[in-house]
Amino acid sequence: MISTRLCTSAMIWLLASSFACFGPEATVLAAQPAANKAPANKAPVKLREKWAVLIGINQYQDKSIGQVKYAGRNVAAITKALADTNAGRFSPDHIMVITDGKATKQNLSNCLFEEWLPKKALPNDLILVYFSGRLLEADNHNDILLVPYEGQVATKENTTLSLSGALNEIKRRTQSKNIICLLDATALNASDMRGDDSAIKKLRDDAGVSIFAADQKLAKSIVDETSMQSVFASNLVEGLKTGGGLLPFASVIDYVENAIKSQAPDQIAAFLPASDNQEVASTIIGQAIKQPFNIANVKMGHPIEKLDPDLQRQAERMQDDIDRVQAQKADKANSLSDDEDDDVQDVDFGPYMTQMKKAIQAKWISPKLTKGKNAVAVFSIQRDGSITDAELAESSGNSEVDASAMAALKAASPLAPLPKGSPKHVQIRYKFEWKVTEVQ
Length: 440
Hints:
The protein is of the alpha/beta class. Helix content is 30%, strand content 23%. The protein has a 7-stranded mixed β-sheet, sandwiched between helices. It has a 6-stranded antiparallel β-sheet with strand order 3-2-1-19-17-18, with helices on one face. A hairpin with a 4-residue loop joins strand 2 and strand 3. The longest helix has 24 residues, at 309-332. The radius of gyration is 23 Å and the shape is globular.
């Protein structure tokens, strides 16, 4: 005889993968850290300062290289997330953006390992290097070459940059172990690359830095036509913003990897920590900085009027978005309690997320179904625990399930207040999952 057992499970994407199954025989399955990520209980890496170099090249002088769609938009979106005082909390003058015609071999060299970074960064600093563009494999198959704006395929050994050499030189000059290369790039002749992750493993070992690649084979960087960004960049931005930027980088990695699995199954993201810094994944990217934010101080690699049109429009909207957020904060200022100041601290959100999950699931009454259904909601939790701005991000396809999910959020509000030291609100992506399992 076949009977049906129903269980509900919710998956919380506050930059953490945690799963729970509730029912007559409920069990809780704790997500185990991957071998290449820091253990969950690892103390966060304390940073003196944070620096970022963001490189995006849409068009190359060598027309045989072809266009890289949305590279400029990727850079603009990540710049905004890093500079956001509710996300990355990078000081604007610690961000260098170089795009298109300004991304020459000499300018990249000056910025990465000759002038800008070596004169700024110190051993206890975090350094992020993001690249969206084209790569080539060296003739001897022992190196990956970063193609600058004027790079030529026919003379690649002379007109490109050794990626491992550039990253290694950054490490040598700054003496920082906390260097993460965000590689949202593809090899021009991807079919010539190895069919596994050996190329990025060799890059990690040769450069001595941590690598987070959009694709382990360096063969794909799939674009999302809705956001007009790469899938890697758009989810990296969401990962950095979720939770106010105050969760470990390992959680951001999990978020991006799982999102890419869902949106672009043929693309497999991969994170490889430096051999001498396995704990880098415990770094909290959004650690607070003291400098006030002003988008006008973001150091672009060239004047805004010379940006490509997509990047220009994105950059022009940045200050409008910041102004709107600041106005909203001002409206709420009078309602904040005395202890709700701007002294944001590093917070362990793990216990709070467990408590939140239980509170919401206790209020969820899903219709009885014979087929599994999933609904995804996004919402904010204010410091006082109230749930605001709840929206259905992904419909289950069943109006009753969708309605029950939103009703659960309404009934669960307010939750417990956010932990002391939290930002004024955190953003949550919450999956309501109804599973049907047949058993003998």
